[in-house]
UniProtKB/TrEMBL annotation:
<feature type="repeat" description="TPR">
    <location>
        <begin position="61"/>
        <end position="94"/>
    </location>
</feature>
<keyword id="KW-0732">Signal</keyword>
<dbReference type="InterPro" id="IPR019734">
    <property type="entry name" value="TPR_rpt"/>
</dbReference>
<keyword id="KW-0677">Repeat</keyword>
<dbReference type="Pfam" id="PF13414">
    <property type="entry name" value="TPR_11"/>
</dbReference>
<dbReference type="InterPro" id="IPR050498">
    <property type="entry name" value="Ycf3"/>
</dbReference>
<protein>
    <submittedName>
        <fullName>Tetratricopeptide repeat protein</fullName>
    </submittedName>
</protein>
<dbReference type="InterPro" id="IPR011990">
    <property type="entry name" value="TPR-like_helical_dom_sf"/>
</dbReference>
<feature type="signal peptide">
    <location>
        <begin position="1"/>
        <end position="22"/>
    </location>
</feature>
<keyword id="KW-0802">TPR repeat</keyword>
Amino acid sequence: MKQLILTGLAWTIFLISGSALASEPGQDPLALKAVELCNNGKYDQAIATLSEGLKKRPNDAFLLYLRGKAYTAKGQYGPALADLNQAIRLNPQNGQAYFGRALVHVYQENYEEAVKDLETAHKYGYRDEDFLSLIKKKAEGKRKK
């Protein structure tokens, strides 16, 4: 049940952040296709589509970010972190990637790291004050234990 709720939260946030596609140069058809697949719950197909794109454009931070989000939705946090970390290395000012990585940290109950990433996401223009406040409270609660 917890995983179902978390997956729902991830995709709600993903769909909201999907509006950021409009800010991506040229609205990449590959990215749009992957988002559509994810919106229909076809995460494996989205991952395959993004992986094919990354063979041609291995340093595309946006495709890595999207694939990381798809892995997150599947609960595959290792590959998700690998993609999100690489997306951040390629574009260290991408607030979306920090937010995506924060979600993975939340799912892993690593709230301290999540707070750091949420604050960095905020610094680069990707804000969710309510979520940040919630995770800060969880981090404080975990520290007290």
